[in-house]
Each structure stands twice: as structure tokens, then as C-alpha cells.
Amino acid sequence: MKRCHGSKNTSDERPVKRQAMTSMNVLPRSQFEHAFPKYYPQKIGHFSLDEQRSFRHDDSQLRFFFQPQISEIKCENRTSRDVSGDTPMPVSLNLRDGYKKLIERDESIKERLDDLLRWMLLHKDMFNEKSHERSAMDFVCWRGLLTKILCTPYENREDWKIAAARYKGCIYLCEYDTQQKIENKRHEGVLQKEMSYWGFKFEQYVTTNVKDGHPDTDKPVNNNEAFVSVVRTHLNNHSLVFGGEVDCSDGDEYIELKTSRIMNDPKHIINFKRFKMIKWWIQSFLIGISKIICGFRDDDGIVKYLKTFKTNEIPTYCKDIRDCWKGTVCFNFCDEFLKFVRNSIELDYDKGIYVYEWMPHHSVSYKVMEPDSEYAFLPEWYTTQFECNRVDGASPPLCTDVLSKADHMSTRQ
After folding, report:
1. 158: buried, middle or exposed (CB in 10 Å: 19+, 13-18, 0-12)?
2. pLDDT digits (tens, 9 = 90+) for 337-376
């Protein structure tokens, strides 16, 4: 059966069989308040996406942190110092600059897991058991999907939808847009679109393509470009492989870059700790990033100062707010969710795709869809080449000669 992304079928929304919905309770959170589960992230590789969003088996898109010139403008906002205790570094960076020149990624192209799968094909010996009958991993996904799962116990606005396909014993997880997300995107205003650019512009101000170099802030921002770290880890008894974009490095360690609105009163600080820092902590903790550098901006898009947060100290920073989030709850919930997925999947990818859905204040539920429905995200070129003893033959789509030339490509010194 031919399977491809975006295939349309009259049975797309018809489950394979009628069944009673099996669900998983998210609340009360207290059910997940026990010892922190085992979790050991290990970097096993990386790849780049170039200016045309093409896969490159190298580190050509790795950026290095650049300390911008210190501004003479005093940072008068002392309230925000309570968040981490360090002194803000005053700067003046205009995030609106160059917006009209933005080279924007085509979001109508649904990439799913494709680039991560390309990298895995180049290193497939890492993932096959000796018998080659099953994979030496339990789950494959993107870091962003794991972040959504981990935030679920404390999320009260955004829903999610995750498709799961089992192949050679491994479960591949892929996020799909919910109707709420589609509607939000459709009604996105001009200012919202511009503000989504500000984070990319901030990255341009504080990174360079060579160590000890200087940023080229006149160059148009191109959000097709990305450097991705591939991580292998265990969450209790679950073996996971996932990819996550990395903003930059200081030469020794990866650094996460963020922007946030300047906090002018205690309420702003409470919201910052409750809603932003949980996601920042999870994103960085998952991939093993120890440092987050944030540019605090005003409403006109001018970054006034930089602050550094140590990932492992963030839970302590947030403890002083009422009903604070707990990392143990997040990771124990994720552990239980992955158990729920493993226990509920009975069919391989060519017999059915499992779709898990969740809305705030509800339980997680799932349905089983046809293998050629719109949720068929595992491409045929991947399963075909994963079965081969050697990685050869026709290259995957949008990946010209990557497989045949990969061994000849060296990483940048």
C-alpha cells in the first residue's frame, strides 16, 4: 500500500473499528507526586538544515554565542532580579529591525519526523537489535512533542493531538495540529506575526557562525536554518531517541536563547514563573542544556537587558509561588503516558495508526485510524531502507544524495 504525507482518503476520519474510548486520567496531579524517575540524556549525533531547509549531515548550522555590546542605558527594573538573583546586563537590541526582509519557512510543508528519520537511516546500526527483528529503542519523536506531554499536568489552555505508529517494536510519535491551533493560526494578527519574528532576530544579534566571530545583523533572518542535536535517553524503563533544535554553543556546552517581556510588577513575575519557566526548564533539561540566556524586551521590541538562568536552579526559583509546578509531576506523568501508549497499541503501522488527544481538564483518549489516513506519517522510504543491510539505493525525498554521500561529508572544525 502506497503511503505518503498529506494523502487524502474518504476514510481519514473513520476509525479502523468502533471501540470504547480508553482513557488516561491527568488529574489529580497528586497521583504523580513520587520520586523523580530515572532520566539520563546522552547526545549521540547532530545534523543541520540549511537556507533551503535541506538536510545536511554536518554541523554547518551550529551557532556560537556572542556577547553584545553593553549599553550605557541603566537597567532600572530591579523586580526581575528576584527571579535568578544575578545582575541584568544592559543592552539595546531592536528586534523589529529587518522584519520585512524575513526569509520565512514554508509552514504548509508538513515535515513530520522526516529529517530525524534521515539521520537515523545514516546511523541505523545504533538502533537495530542483533536479530534485526525489532528496534533497540521504544520511542522516537521531537523534543517539542515531549515538552507538550511533560507540561500537560499544568496546562490549562492548549490542547494536543499525537499520532503513534509502531514499526519493528518501536513507537514513532508525531504531533498534529488540533482544530484550536488551526483556528488560532488563521486569526493571527499582524503584530502577533511580527512578534514571532523577534525571537529569530534576537538569535541573530547574539550568535555568530564561527567561534569568536561577529554577527551579521544586516543579513536577512532565515528561519529555515537549524542545528539539531539528537539525544538518546531512558525515562525509567522507556528508551527514547529524539531530536531538538539547539540555538547556540559557548564552545563547550549548548545554550538555550529566549526572549520575554520586561516584568514591571509582582504579577508579571508570578506569571513568568508559572507559565514560561516550566517550559524553559523542560526544554533545556530534556536535552541536557545547563544555561538559558534571556533577552528582556519592552513592548516596542527593544531588548533592554540580558539575564542568565541555570537550568538546574529554575525549580528553586519558582518555589515561592502558590501551587508551583513540580518537575517530578511532569516527568512521572510522561512516564505513565508512555506506558499508556505502549499498552494500548496492538497493531503495527501498516494495520493502524493510533491517535491520542487531550484537552485541558479532560483525560487523554485515543482512537485507531486507517493506516492510509491523514495520520500516516511514517514514510515508505524510511521503512524500506531501514530493512536493508546497507544504506543505499534511491535517496529519500528532499534529501538529494544525502545517503550516498554522507560518509564523505566531514564536520566543520
Report:
1. middle
2. 999 999 999 999 999 999 999 999 999 999 999 999 999 9
pTM of this structure: 0.88
Q: Is 382 helix (H, G, I), strand (E, B) or coil?
A: helix
> Which grid coordinates belong to 239?
528508551
Beta strands 353-358 and 160-167, pairing class: antiparallel
Asked whether the beta carbons of 141 and 109 are under 8 A apart, the reply is no
Q: Which residue, among 205, 254, 210, has the nearest Cα to 228 in the 3D structure?
A: 254
Cell of 302: 527593544
Largest CA distance in the chain: 67
Beta bridge partners of 138: none
Q: What angle do CA 119, 150, 86 make, to 5 degrees?
A: 95
Containing H/E element for 53?
none
Q: Would you mind telling me the total number of residues written for the chain in this entry?
A: 413
pLDDT 10s digits, 60-114:
999 999 999 887 555 544 444 433 446 789 999 999 999 999 999 999 999 999 9
Q: Are 269 and 82 in contact (CB under 8 A)?
A: yes
* Pair 84, 308: CB distance under 8 Å: yes
* Whether the bond into 41 is cis, omega within 30 of 0: no
Which residue carries 547532530 as its cell? 46
Cell readout for 50 is 540549511
Run of H or E residues at 164: strand 160-167
Matching residue, cell 542483533 = 130
Confidence of residue 238 (pLDDT cuts 50, 70, 90): very high
Beta strand 364-369 with 353-358 is antiparallel
Phi/psi class of residue 279: alpha, beta or left (left: φ > 0; alpha: ψ in -120 to 50)?
A: alpha
CA–CA gap between residue 353 and residue 158 (Å, rounded): 23
Which residue type is seen at 356?
Y
What is the full DSSP assignment across 232-296?
Answer: EEEETTEEEEEEEE--EE-SSSEEEEEEEEPP-SHHHHHHIIIIIHHHHHHHHHHHT--EEEEEE
